[in-house]
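Problem 12. The chain below contains 340 residues. Write out its predicted structure in token notation.
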Amino acid sequence: MLARYFLSVTRGARRRTLHNAYSGWASATSRVSALSPGTHFWTGRLPYSALNDHYYLPPPVQDVEQEPMPPDYELQSYWKQRFVDEKHFEWLGDGKDTILPHVYAFLLETRSSGLGSNQPRRLLHIGAGTSSLSERLRELYNSMYGEDVDERAIVNTDFAGNLVVRKQAAEEARRAVGGQQRGMRWRCVDAMKWRELEILRDEEPAPFDIVVDKSTSDAISCGEDVSYSHPDPSVHPSFNNYLEAHGTHGITLSPVEVLAIHLSSVVRPGGLWVALTFSSDRFAFLSSPGSMDAPIPRAASHWYLERVITVDAPTGAQGNVHAPVVQHYICLIRRGERPQ
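Solution.
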């Protein structure tokens, strides 16, 4: 019961931290910190958030009542309802000064290395939502490869079907005017469901070269850890292989690590995952290869964290109001084994 209680507090803390990061709100007297393994509890209001190496006590009941729980950002139902009316919203900024420079550098690197000469790199944008980032990616491809570039090299995904239908219609209209190469692709995909990513992979003529993730991994992190206890054709092959050999052990991983393992099967070796997150420890699991006695599938076998770049984020303050500096993190994650 105690473990279940603390898990509930942990999930609430993740959602509250994400909610505050998304809203751009911060104040000197009530502030949340980035969450990391072992310190998943809200560190907002003193005195119960005093720093130590142990679990924090939960806030008083009246404090919980005053601060309603933020939405379940990991749930498809939340986003489907939100996208009924939402036409545009930016999470952690529009990505123009954070994500795009690294996408551009990667495209330049692969072109100069002779990989496919001027063929556009295949890009997977996960959790694209209503951000303008997809349009900025289109503009970047037109600038990089020319106006006759095949925009279908850009695949935007979201698990909210109502949004995807809307976006597909817009791209079809663009294609009707400009020809088959005009128009990015949109697919309804839940990246936490391997079967859906597998279908997308099988539709593609080749693996993706680059993944773009603007806070999608943050939203996914709000979910519970994922457990597998027996082989199932709907789960990733690496999990099935392990369970067939070590079925009595089972597997429990964080949702973001499951995402990373899923993505490893749709991205080519040497490919890049550009992730913008509010947490410097979002991909801490890449430093945890796991036990050799029980070789549980781990994302560190497929990806390594090449670089983490700290950037100052908008605080939401207006006029002369002072607000503490809030930081976001650009994580460059490379598909393959870490160089020795």
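Discussion. The CA atoms of residues 13 and 195 lie 30 Å apart. Students who got a different answer should revisit the alignment rule from Section 12.3.
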